[in-house]
Amino acid sequence: MLNALVRNSGLDRVLDATISIDSQKIFKPAPDAYTLIESTLRVRPTEVLFVSSNPWDACGAKSFGLNVAWIERVTPEAMALACVGSDVVPPLTMFKAIRTQMDELGLEPDYRIHALSELPDLVARP
Question: Which of 36, 61, 66, 87 is most buried (CB neighbours < 10 A)?
Answer without folding.
Answer: 61
